[in-house]
C-alpha cells in the first residue's frame, strides 16, 4: 500500500516522497477505515508500513 498526504498549497516540492505516510495515518486523520474486512493483524501490518515508490 502507498499513501500520501499532500498539503493544499502552491509551490510544493516535486515528487511525492516528502508527503509519503502510512495508511494508518490517513485513516487517523480522516476517521475512515479503508481495510476493515482484513484480519486485524494483517490490517495493522499493511497499514503501518511506509512504502516509497521507486
Characterise the protein shown here.
This protein is mainly alpha-helical and 54 residues long. The protein has one domain. Helix content is 31%, strand content 7%. It is built from two helices and two strands; from the N terminus they run ββαα. The chain has helices at 23-30, 40-48, and strands at residues 3-4, 20-21. It has a two-stranded antiparallel sheet with strand order 1-2. It starts with a strand and ends in a 6-residue tail after the last helix.
User: Quick one: biggest sheet?
Assistant: 2 strands, antiparallel
Whole-number tally of structural domains = 1
Q: What's the oligomerization state?
A: single chain
Helical stretch tally: 2
What sequence of helices (H) and strands (E) makes up the elements? EEHH
Q: Tell me the number of strands.
A: 2
Overall structural class, as computed from helix and strand content, comes to mainly alpha
Order of strands in the sheet with most strands: 1-2
> What overall form do the CA principal axes indicate?
elongated
Query: Which strand-content bin applies to the residues?
Result: 5-15%
Alpha carbon gyration radius = 13 Å
Amino acid at each position: 500500500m502507498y499513501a500520501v498526504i499532500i498539503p493544499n498549497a502552491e509551490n510544493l516540492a516535486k515528487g511525492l516522497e516528502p508527503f509519503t505516510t502510512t495508511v494508518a495515518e490517513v485513516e487517523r486523520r480522516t476517521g475512515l477505515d479503508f481495510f476493515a474486512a482484513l484480519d486485524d493483524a494483517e490490517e495493522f501490518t499493511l497499514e503501518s508500513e511506509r512504502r516509497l515508490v521507486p
